[in-house]
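Protocol step 4 of 6: structure prediction from sequence.
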Amino acid sequence: MAAALRSFRHPLMFRLGAFGMVLTSFLAGWLLGGSLALGFVFASTWFLLPWLEILTRVRRLRMPIDRQLELTPPPARSVFPTFSELTEEMESHAFVHVEDVGWSHDETRQFIRIFQQPESRTLGAICLIEQQEFAFYYLSLTSRTADGRTFLTWNYPFAYGLRIPPDVQLNRVAGDGTIGELASAHAAFLSRCEIDTAALREPSSATARVEMQAELRHQLDHNLACGLLERDGPDLIRYSMRGMFFLWFQFLRDFVRIS
């Protein structure tokens, strides 16, 4: 029943499903092990298990402070089977392909196909992230105002592992929608924020990569200032202990879908 409830998109049903998974684990420990204490131990594993990943992998993770986005060939179909279909869908909504960029460090790779839609002054992106054997993708739409604010709509599938800078307004949508639905959600987001097209900067294909690279650095600098990241030599950064607890809380948010 818990698994069925978590398959619903309604937040209440999803949270009831999360509660059901914890309750099922508690009952397994109590009824099968004959101990209330064992039941609480079984239930607590849902909240403590992420620390295994944090302490074994994240604690050793080192990332470059400057992520140079370089021209990168598209991923193979075996790695990203729906890439061509997503590109065609983007182009069917008047987005123009600008360029393909990416960066890599150790076992982490990120590929970004950049689009622009001049009429709405919006940049679009198809992003693929690969970490060892794990890979996922997400879509994003970005609009920037002349006064330096950024409005971002995306379907990033997990709670984000860094803090968003205060000059970036984030609109997260469900990951199973179409690009047309993402574009509609972004337009509604700008409307709620009382931003019209005339207030937006016109995107430039010549500077798209540079601006994206600068935003990545701005985000890392913000998280260094917040104490979630710390320096590890002149060129690398890593998660601080505070950052590890932040990641744990982000997992809990994902588990019960608070946001």
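Step 5 (inspection) to follow. Residues 88 and 95 are 9 Å apart (CA to CA).
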